[in-house]
Design brief:
Elements (H helix, E strand, L loop, with lengths): L1 H32 L4 H11 L11 H11 L3 H13 L8 H10 L11
Helix pairs in contact: 1-2, 3-4, 4-5
């Protein structure tokens, strides 16, 4: 039992930094693509620290099934799975992800995103 609790704590503590890595990666990519927006991007990066972001567990087998079904990356399929699970609108400019979400409309109560 003790080993199980330690493993759960370790997993929880690992999830928190991963989100930070994703945000850093997004900002770094934006900085490379839009050096003219450097000040705005860095300002948004600093503001992120004050956001209340809720994390959610996902069913990795379900994500994999969506990735295979719609030929998505695991990353994109995770967003699709979560939108489906939360019965939330998925808003994206990514065309393959948008098509996959539109294909699920009516099946899972998703709203077709406006691309």
């Amino acid at each position: 039992m003790k080993g199980s609790r330690s493993k759960s704590r370790a997993q929880a503590s690992l999830r928190r930094p991963v989100l930070g890595f994703e945000i850093v990666n997004a900002c770094a990519t934006r900085l490379c693509r839009h050096p003219d927006l450097r000040d705005e991007i860095l300002e948004a990066f600093v503001l992120e620290g004050g956001l209340a972001i809720e994390t959610a567990e996902v069913d990795h087998a379900g994500v994999l099934a969506l990735a295979q079904r719609f030929r998505l990356t695991g990353y994109d399929a995770s967003y699709l799975w979560l939108a489906q699970r939360l019965d939330a609108e998925l808003v994206t400019l990514d065309r393959p992800l948008s098509r996959a979400a539109a294909a699920l409309v009516g099946l899972a109560g998703l709203t077709a995103p406006q691309a």
